[in-house]
From TrEMBL:
InterPro entries: Delta_60_rpt (IPR013431). Residues 1-25 form the signal peptide. This is Delta-60 repeat domain-containing protein. The chain crosses the membrane at residues 49-66. Keywords: Membrane, Signal, Transmembrane, Transmembrane helix. It comes from the Bacteria. The lineage of its organism: Bacteria, Bacillati, Actinomycetota, Actinomycetes, Micromonosporales. Pfam families: DUF5122.
Length: 420
């Protein structure tokens, strides 16, 4: 298995050399990953893994944690909120920057760098709130990148075609007003003045973008979160933009599917969104603590990207009252993670057991991209709060969460399912 992955690695790194780093949009894969995780990934000993990124052959891991162990569990190292390891051997890198708050998002940069977003205020002792760029070799800040948010946090990042897209709870970057979503020049961190999504949430305590994705061609962006308007147009919790030009142009795509309220107290119940590798559709993962065939609480739903006018989901996968937090779309499968117990469970209710036709998929599972029905892939995991991060790579699927059992084996908060 190691020899095969190293052969894939050589080919992949040859393609990567000198190229623009990939977007957050998932890469295509030729099949469904194995249900047996590889044995060489390291372990995160506490807290939660929130974010994953790949730069060359280095996996960067972000979250809220303090210690990591090597795959043998013999060596324990202090690593606060961020660390890195080798994709093909699991070796923990020396990369150990000091970041004083949780990291929620990562994006690959050029020249051996990574962009980091989260709830921190200082990086290596220097004030740089919510957003930074780091050298992987040294862990030092890229000092030419000066972007910082005014308050709140950064929850999602994508580096695409010379631009860095940034989303979270902030209302300004570098003193430029941008509510929840902004586009920066990737090298300098300067705000792109022509790009403004003009998101607003009248009556909400705080407007925020929980997550977003950009198509691989850089043409479309879909954002989800606590907002009700984009400019003068109503867009409740989800909005799609044409970002291929100099502005954030709201498209004619919209849906009212997320208007119905789930359990009270959710300003948004949408948690993650990912485009298919070809950009033709996207899938939204949602929480909500409410089971209903008339609402999209605790569900995953597929929508078509280039449709115009009011849209209904192409399909809906319902858990029966358990939250979904993460999604990856690879072509052969849509992977879903959360703390769900069942898939195909529209008539189940939280606490009352599965409904007719439900299938057990504790904490992780996959569905058919065309129908949304559960596939047979069922590795299982300790459910905890849930999967927070997927990262599809040419060799398989990386998973980050808050528990230490994946595929019926010990894997501390991170693991990888290889392509079989």
């Amino acid at each position: 298995m190691r020899r095969r992955l190293l052969a894939v690695a050589t080919a992949f790194l040859t393609v990567l050399a000198g190229s623009t780093p990939p977007a957050v949009a998932d890469i295509p894969q030729y099949g469904i990953v194995s249900d047996n995780p590889v044995d060489w990934t390291p372990h995160v000993m506490d807290g939660t893994v929130w974010a994953l990124a790949l730069v060359g052959d280095t996996v960067i891991v972000g979250g809220a944690f303090t210690k990591v162990q090597d795959s043998s569990r013999r060596v324990t190292l202090d690593r606060k909120n961020i660390f890195a390891f080798g994709l093909y051997d699991g070796a923990i890198r020396s990369f150990a920057p000091e970041v004083d708050g949780a990291i929620y998002s990562l994006a690959p940069g050029t020249g051996g760098t990574v962009y980091v977003g989260g709830a921190f205020k200082k990086v290596n002792g220097v004030a740089q709130r919510g957003l930074t760029r780091l050298w992987l070799g040294s862990g030092n800040r890229v000092t030419s990148f000066q972007a910082k948010i005014n308050w709140g946090d950064v929850r999602s990042l994508t580096n695409r075609l010379g631009h860095l897209y940034v989303a979270g709870t902030f209302s300004a970057i570098n003193g430029v007003e941008r509510v929840g979503l902004a586009r920066l020049y990737a090298e300098s961190g300067t705000v792109d003045q022509g790009f403004d999504a003009k998101l607003a949430g009248p009556g909400l305590s705080r407007t925020r973008v929980e997550h977003f994705d950009v198509t691989a061609d850089g043409r479309r962006l879909v954002a989800v979160g606590a907002f009700l308007k984009a400019g003068s147009s109503e867009r409740i919790q989800i909005a799609e933009f044409d970002v291929g030009g100099p502005t954030a142009q709201l498209t004619g795509w919209y849906t009212k599917a997320y208007e119905p309220e789930c359990m009270k107290g959710f300003d948004t119940y949408l948690r993650q969104v990912k485009f298919a590798p070809d950009g033709s559709y996207f899938v939204v993962a949602a929480t909500g603590r409410a089971s209903s065939v008339h609402k999209l609480c605790d569900s995953a739903a597929r929508f078509e990207t280039d449709a115009v006018g009011e849209q209904e989901p192409t399909w809906v996968q319902r858990t029966g009252g358990d939250s979904l937090y993460a999604v990856a779309v690879t072509g052969p499968a849509v992977y879903l993670g959360g703390h769900q117990r069942y898939f195909d469970n529209p008539l189940g209710t939280d606490g009352d057991g599965p409904g007719p036709g439900a299938v057990s998929r504790p904490g992780i599972g996959a569905v058919d991209p065309a129908t949304g029905k559960a596939l047979s892939w069922n590795p299982t995991r300790a459910r905890g709060v849930g999967v927070r991060a997927f990262l599809a790579v040419p060799e398989g699927l990386l998973v980050g969460s808050d528990t230490d059992e994946l595929g019926r084996e010990y894997h501390g908060r991170i693991g990888m399912f290889p392509l079989g």
